[in-house]
Amino acid sequence: MTRRDTLQTVHEPFGDAFYFGPERLHHRYENDPEERTNSGFSDSTYRTIFDNIARDGSEGKRVFIKDMAYYWMPPDNEPPKIAPSLINYKRGVGTNTTELSPVTTRSDKAGKPYPYPTEGEPGNPTVLPKDLLSQFHFTFLIRHPKHSIPSYQRCTTDPLDKVTGWNYVNTNEAGYAELRRLFDYLRQEGIVGPRMAGQSTNGTDGEDGNNDSGIEICVLDADDVLDNPSAMIEAYCKSTGIKYEPEMLKWEEEFHQKYAKEVFEKWRGWHDDAINSSELKARAHKKAPKTDEQLYAEWTEKFGEKAATWIRDTVKKNEADYEYLKQFAIKPN
Fold first, then answer.
1. Distance (Å, rounded) from C-alpha 74 to C-alpha 42?
2. Membrane-spanning regions, if any (predicted)?
3. 75: buried, middle or exposed (CB in 10 Å: 19+, 13-18, 0-12)?
4. pLDDT tens sequence for the chain (333 residues)
């Protein structure tokens, strides 16, 4: 967000279609049409979101999108089908979906929109065509679930739930399994890899770099970034072709603060810590490891026993996917 001269930031656009639009995949707002309408996104489809992204990139800036992999997948391992608004996407169009012929996506259908009346693509875990996915440069940000899941719980607990509008948690919104499935699919299809960011040798597990996509496997662990932000962000920039400048880690100027608040407004309450900060600097002390018992006691004190049990079980359910992705992460210096 501090490089607005060269980068156009788009913050979590796909949640609009996932939760609110006529192609919505999740049930969170299924029985609340008023809330879907009030969101301003009740007409958002996956196609209209890509149309907006294309327009964001029309001024020559590189578009930087931060989003959730699970917004592209049906919850609970339902078989994926291509979003109706994207069924006529063809290779060669690139990312500019505005060039496609119009597709009408019904918003008057009674009941849940999913499953769609379309087919999926073999092996593709998403509702997006592979040819469209292949137009993007993917990178991945991970965080240990013992940190992210309690944070999720906090945003759905009084008093913050009054700000976010979320007053309950869903295990299928943790997102780790979906991120792993997307990651593996992109590697399998040669959309990323086999080279890994931050490594001087090609490939992994004996791969020699043949069929190189030209896009490195770039995984950042949030704790590594917080422990050594300058080195980790510099490595990220090197992998993605962004010029690194130390000043990009500071945003104390009023115009940066104003812009961040505007970008984060859609998901009010979820990013208050970031909004109220002015720079990304190394933690004075690394987080001391805690036993499972200590963590459970801490969660119980903050959220109560029922919520603490849900956090514990959800962390355990997602740890294997996190550890799998962690092996690909850029190694801190």
1. 18
2. none
3. middle
4. 678 899 999 999 999 999 999 999 999 999 999 999 999 999 999 999 999 999 999 889 999 999 999 999 999 999 999 999 999 987 666 666 666 656 666 555 568 999 999 999 999 999 999 999 999 999 999 999 999 999 999 999 999 999 999 999 999 999 999 999 999 999 999 999 999 998 865 444 444 545 688 999 999 999 999 999 999 999 999 999 999 999 999 988 887 788 878 878 888 899 888 888 889 999 988 888 999 999 999 999 999 999 999 999 999 999 999 999 999 999 987
CB atoms within 10 A of CB 85: 28
Q: Are the C-beta atoms of residues 145 and 315 closer than 8 Å to each other? A: yes
List beta partners, residue 325.
none
Q: Which structure tokens are listed for 302?
A: 């903050």
Q: Is 123 exposed, middle or buried (0-12, 13-18, 19+ CB in 10 A)?
A: exposed
Strands 62-66, 7-11: pairing is parallel
